[in-house]
């Protein structure tokens, strides 16, 4: 194919114990999928979750065991962490039934939905889209992917985040308002899902600001941990 200029390399994630990489198609995110987080953001805690997206190249990663450097973004003084379970699809489709949804999962990882919280708050007050608060460069650090067959019971796993060795977020994936199969089914009604799609499934309570020099460690039981250094 004759391009006007060379295209950027495809965004991808490392795979645990493999030299293969997982190519990323799209990144879908589920908002307020844990009742305690919805409450800390000012809602009752049981509103239906909603969806937004991030660019595929917002994902940054490093091989398992290595730290991911995260540049502190421009235009914010209030950069927040949100630890999340990430679902990676190996196949897709439209109008997927809940009963069939998990057949499309290739693997899982732990990720961070980094958020320019001050920009998000300002835009919410104005009733404007807040893509700039969620979809900026390097806004989705992720750990190495673990194939589904090796990941254990991710639907009843502990999920937590430490900042400089201090626990900030802690919860159970079983506390999701929508579980993994329900999320996949609902997304497939709005978009035709594809192999390579990533789904960030929401965060438990405890979101807070980070500063340059902070060290973040995110974990979901059974998955490779994610280490991030904020620059």
From TrEMBL:
Residues in coiled coil: none
Domain Fumarylacetoacetase-like C-terminal: 27-230
SUPFAM superfamilies xref list: FAH
Top-level taxon of origin: Bacteria
Recorded GO MF terms: acetylpyruvate hydrolase activity; metal ion binding
Entry keywords, A to Z: Hydrolase, Metal-binding
Protein name: Fumarylacetoacetate hydrolase family protein
